[in-house]
């Protein structure tokens, strides 16, 4: 199943006016992991590009990370909490089963006029959210939205499984999206897709309705994330290439027009392999996985925030966000920043 949003209404544009990110201070190095499982800094670095990841303490929750990132994005945009109409939090590690993490963020920020909900599309959650907000703003349903990706993946990591525990980290990224009239800037195009046939490639089975907390688990490891890395790897490269190609074709852009492609940071080799197939030069591909690991829905907005603050993206630049994750899901957004 695929869905697209086109730039049909240039009179009302969805413009990203602010960005922010936050990661917990505690760091876990590859050498730290090598003391937990049979692995090495050399293996992790060469297979994934990851050197360190940030991990939450017991007191640091997903809503806490999300609120910090959101406040930074609002400060950047110069927007107050009471001006926000909508808060979305893309996450697979919510504050609790319900209510939504977005409601906790709404309360923490004092964004009393905002409606709030979570988006469950795993690593594609942030680009899915922008797809929705793009449409809500262009159809004048809302004026100002906080779009957040926030994860505490290390809370559902199996620290005995070397094939997965080396990959993930915690963090949050956010953008403020505002309705602006008669501007050339804004979200230009979004595309998204899903294929549930591959749900077993990446999942965390407990505690949903198939494995409720009231019944003992046949396998205690079902409380943790489980991945089939090789399967994910091959699909991810193909879906990223297809989504970026779709964006270029649909917006009639060449690679020369694009300042930066910001991919979900799942594995540096996956991003490099997709970039090679797309003929993207190195300077147009942002990789920061070495510092954070895979932060799922948070990785694109964290990378975007870093790019903006490092001056790698400037006002007016065309940027493509692209992601692939559990479901499986994928998606991309084209923005003129
Ligand atoms: O955002 C979506 C979530 N992300 C993903 O699902 C990750 C996508 N996949 C990947 O990033 C890569 O597939 C991995 C990094 C997970 C694995 O890299 P790979 O190059 O696909 O390695 P592999 O799974 O083919 O394993 C190669 C070898 C195996 O040993 P044998 O069978 O060749 O003897 C593994 O047992 O590496 C072994 N291995 C390890 N060795 C040291 C697996 N994990 C480790 C480890 N340290 N941590």
Structure described in brief:
The protein is of the alpha+beta class.
Describe this structure in words.
By secondary structure, the protein is α+β, with helices and mostly antiparallel strands. Helices cover 31% and strands 26% of the residues. The chain has a five-stranded mixed beta sheet with strand order 1-9-14-13-12, with helices on both faces. Helix 3 crosses helix 4 (101-109) and helix 7 packs parallel to helix 8 (268-278). The longest helix has 22 residues, at 229-250. The radius of gyration is 19 Å and the shape is globular.
Average pLDDT over all residues? 96
Integer-rounded radius of gyration: 19 Å
Please bin the fraction of helical residues.
25-40%
| Highest-level CATH class of the largest domain | Alpha Beta
Instruction: Count every helix, treating DSSP H or I runs of 4 or more residues as helices.
Output: 10
Main sheet characteristics: 5 strands, mixed
> Got a strand count?
14
CATH architecture of the largest domain: 3-Layer(aba) Sandwich
What small molecules are bound in this structure? oxa(dethia)-CoA
Q: What is the overall shape?
A: globular
List the domain count as a whole number: 2
Record the SSE blueprint.
Layout (H helix, E strand, L loop, with lengths): L1 E5 L5 E11 L4 E3 H5 L6 H8 L3 E3 L7 H16 L8 E5 L10 H9 L5 E5 L5 H14 L5 E9 L9 H4 L4 E12 L4 E9 L7 E2 L22 E2 L1 H22 L7 E6 L4 H11 L10 H4 L6 H11 L8 E8 L3 E8 L1
Parallel strand pairs: 5-6, 5-7, 12-13
Antiparallel strand pairs: 1-9, 2-8, 3-4, 7-8, 9-14, 10-11, 13-14
The structure holds oxa(dethia)-CoA.
The site of oxa(dethia)-CoA has 19 residues, from α2, α6 and α7.
């Amino acid at each position: 199943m695929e869905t697209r949003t086109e730039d049909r209404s240039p009179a009302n544009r969805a413009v990203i006016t602010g960005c922010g990110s936050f990661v917990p201070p505690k760091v876990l190095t590859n050498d730290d992991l090598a003391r937990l499982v049979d692995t090495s800094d050399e293996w992790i670095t060469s297979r994934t590009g990851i050197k360190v990841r940030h991990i939450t303490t017991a007191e640091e929750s997903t809503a806490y990370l999300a609120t910090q990132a959101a406040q930074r994005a609002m400060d950047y945009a110069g927007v107050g909490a009471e001006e926000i109409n909508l808060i979305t939090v893309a996450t697979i590690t919510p504050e609790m089963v319900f209510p939504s993490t977005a409601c906790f963020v709404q309360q923490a920020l004092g964004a009393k006029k905002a409606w709030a909900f979570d988006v469950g599309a795993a690593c594609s959650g942030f680009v899915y959210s922008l797809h929705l907000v793009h449409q809500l703003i262009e159809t004048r349903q809302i004026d100002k939205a906080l779009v957040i990706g926030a994860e505490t993946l290390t809370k559902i990591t199996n620290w005995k499984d070397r094939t997965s525990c080396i990959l993930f980290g915690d963090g949050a990224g956010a953008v403020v999206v505002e309705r602006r009239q008669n501007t050339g800037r804004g979200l230009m195009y979004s595309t998204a897709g899903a294929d549930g046939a591959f749900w077993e490639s990446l999942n965390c089975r407990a505690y949903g309705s198939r494995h409720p907390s009231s019944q003992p688990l046949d396998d205690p490891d079902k409380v943790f994330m489980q991945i089939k890395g090789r399967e994910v790897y091959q699909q991810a490269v193909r879906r990223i290439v297809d989504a970026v190609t779709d964006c270029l074709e649909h917006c009639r852009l060449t690679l020369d027009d694009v300042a930066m492609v910001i991919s979900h940071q799942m594995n540096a080799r996956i991003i490099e392999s997709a970039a090679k197939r797309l003929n993207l030069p190195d300077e147009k591909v942002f990789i920061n996985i070495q510092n954070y690991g895979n932060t799922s829905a948070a990785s694109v907005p964290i990378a975007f925030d870093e790019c903006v603050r490092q001056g790698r993206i400037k006002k007016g630049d065309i940027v493509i966000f692209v992601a692939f994750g559990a479901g499986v899901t994928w998606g991309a957004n084209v923005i003129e920043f």
